Amino acid sequence: MNDHDHQGEGPPSLEARRSLLEGSDFHPEPGQEAWEQWHQARAFIADAINQDGDVLDVGCANGLLLTSLIQWSPDHQLVPYGIDTRADRVKEADGPLASRGGRAALLPMAELARLGEVGLPEAYDLIYWNVWDNVSFAEPVWRERLAELASHLKPGGRLILGFYDSDPHQSSARIIRLAEHGVQIAGTHKNPAGPERLAWIDAPNHSS
Ligand SMILES: C[S@@+](CC[C@H](N)C(=O)[O-])C[C@H]1O[C@@H](n2cnc3c(N)ncnc32)[C@H](O)[C@@H]1O
Question: Whose C-alpha lies nearest to ligand 1, atom 6?
């Protein structure tokens, strides 16, 4: 269950939930309760959240993942920020994120240097990126983007990469490729309820 932008008004209706899932580019299989499928596909991400603080979702869509992660991480105080290239999604995300102390902004990942200019923090305790299907870490440009993303972590912060390939071997191969390219993977996690995989990179603390 997720109250997203329905705070204080009870849980969203079935129709509202459908539209929230659609606004997050989540396409449930027919035959099983859609909200349950969302939970099964994404709730395991909360297992990688290891600290409180500002969290950035790169490609936040309507912000549903961020508001869900807040709900699924009751032991951590998270302030949600998101960027996306779709103006309609950013508009949908901004209200729910602002009501939790954060905000959404229209910004492509390639322009992270403009985070401050669009009113978002420059550095985060947690960053989440659902590594899109078109991303290959064999291409230097994506490794550079990844390094730039990691440079926006605070000391001790964590960059969590989500791989949603329907074939889990495909996701594992992409994670192995990252390690082969010298990226220090601090941990990985399999979704116990689906094919999704996570890998994360931890920024050093000042003292280490
Ligand atoms: C599948 S949704 C992911 C939603 C949510 N982060 C999740 O993991 O469930 C991918 C989002 O990434 C956005 N996106 C794609 N390319 C982008 C880019 N270069 N910079 C920022 N956002 C991008 C899309 O507009 C879309 O809203």
Answer: 60
Q: How far is the C-alpha of 90 from the C-alpha of 105, rounded, in Å?
A: 6
**Residues of the chain whose pLDDT is less than 50?**
1, 6-9
User: For residue 1, what pLDDT is reported?
Assistant: 45
pLDDT digit string (tens) for 173-194? 999 999 999 999 999 999 999 9
Q: In angstroms, rounded to a whole number, what is the distance separating the alpha carbons of residues 197 and 32?
A: 22
Ligand 1, atom 12, residue with closest C-alpha? 59
Atom of ligand 1 nearest to the CA of 108: 20
Quote the ligand 1 centre to 60 CA distance (angstroms). Answer: 6
Measured in angstroms, how far is the CA atom of residue 130 from the centroid of ligand 1?
A: 7
Q: Which residues contact 72 (CB under 8 A, 6 or more apart)?
A: 43, 45, 46
Residues, the chain:
208
Q: With the C-alpha atoms ordered 204, 74, 53, 117, is the resulting torsion angle positive or negative?
A: positive
134 CA → ligand 1 middle, Å:
12
As a whole number of angstroms, the distance between CA 144 and CA 62 comes to: 27
**How far is Cα 22 from Cα 204, in angstroms, rounded to an integer?**
37
Task: State the closest ligand 1 atom to the C-alpha of 57, by its place in the atom list counted from 1.
Answer: 6
**Fold that domain 37-202 belongs to in CATH:** Rossmann fold (3.40.50)
The residue whose CB lies within 8 Å of the most ligand 1 atoms, and thus the one to mutate among 86, 133, 164, is 86
Q: What are phi and psi of 200, to 5 degrees?
A: -135, 155
